[in-house]
Amino acid sequence: MPEPFHQAMDAVLAGDAGALDPWLRGGEAGRAGLAVYRNTVAKARADALAGLYPTVQRLVGADWFREAALTFARRTPPSSPVMDDYGEGFPDWLEAFPPARDLPFLAPAARIDRAWNGSHRALEAPVLSAAQVAAVGPDALFAARAVTHPSARLFWFDWTVPSVWLANRPGRDPDADVFWDQVPEGLLLVRPRDAVQAHPLGRTQWLFLDSCRRGLPLGRAAASVMIAEPLTDLSRLFAELLRLGVFTRLDMERPAR
Q1: How many CA atoms lie within 13 A of 40 on its CB side?
Q2: Do both 116 and 173 map to the same domain?
Q3: CA distance 174 to 167
Q4: Domains in the chain: how many in total?
């Protein structure tokens, strides 16, 4: 449980200027110093959010983002000393933030930004190769589970969130046309080697990967695809996913009942 002093300090950072009065000397002068400290802390938190949510900042502009980030920062203390962990609740907060009410793509884009950071920091792991898969017989392969890479992050949206996010990544052409439309889209983030890669996904790719992510055997993953799209070329689909480096190994053991 936090000590009274720490609780009072959190209250000051959240805007209660008198919370630390029992510990202060100098009255108003002490409060003025705390105000400077409070602003410095809020700025550091807002700077961290700008680094963690670069696509959101580009979507709304630096000034809009800074005001929103400062508002969030003054109300939300970190739960960890590691600033890369800060702002986990920022996407949900944006969803309820009144100035963002007319920007429905903003919170989903923030969730992808957050997932990108998680993919970037994920554990290293080997990448399953096509040669390793080819060495397994068909029956054993259908019973095996393809384990997704620790860096893999998977999304499916009813709107063109991935297109909006991809078009507004740092370094992309700011004048490129992009449309917010009610068209379903999927997205895969994965870091098979040095850098996080972002890949748009079709429905069959997402269905297959989602089954694998949930620990289902490859035979069940294939069946989910064929039910949705009977004409799918499963060999080609699996080969493409292997090329993206989304799997780390084949688990040949049956799960315990």
Answers
A1: 6
A2: no
A3: 8
A4: 2
User: Which residue is listed with tokens 């997205």?
Assistant: 187
Domain extent, residue 100, equals: 1-121
Query: Is residue 89 located within the same domain as residue 163?
Result: no
Residue 56 near residue 43 (C-beta atoms within 8 A): no
Report residue 154 CA to chain centroid gap.
9
Phi and psi based region of residue 178 (left: phi greater than 0; alpha: psi -120 to 50; beta: remaining) = beta
| Mean pLDDT split into 10-residue runs, the chain, 257 residues | 53 52 52 54 87 96 95 83 85 96 96 97 96 93 97 97 94 79 96 96 98 97 96 97 97 67
- Looking at 51, 86, 121, the residue that finishes a domain is 121
What's the CA gap between 111 and 101, in Å, rounded?
A: 16
107 and 179 together in one domain? no
pLDDT score, position 5: 47
- 151 and 98 together in one domain: no
Strands 185-190 and 153-157, bridge-based pairing: antiparallel
- pTM of this structure: 0.83
Check: CB of residue 106 under 8 Å from CB of residue 100.
yes
Q: How far apart are CA 246 and CA 127, in angstroms?
A: 7
- Give the per-residue pLDDT at 173: 81
Strand partners, 185: 157
The burial class, CB within 10 Å (0-12 / 13-18 / 19+), for 206 is buried
Helices 234-244, 203-213: crossing angle, 10 deg rounding: 70
Q: CATH code at 241?
A: 3.90.930
| 129 and 51 together in one domain | no
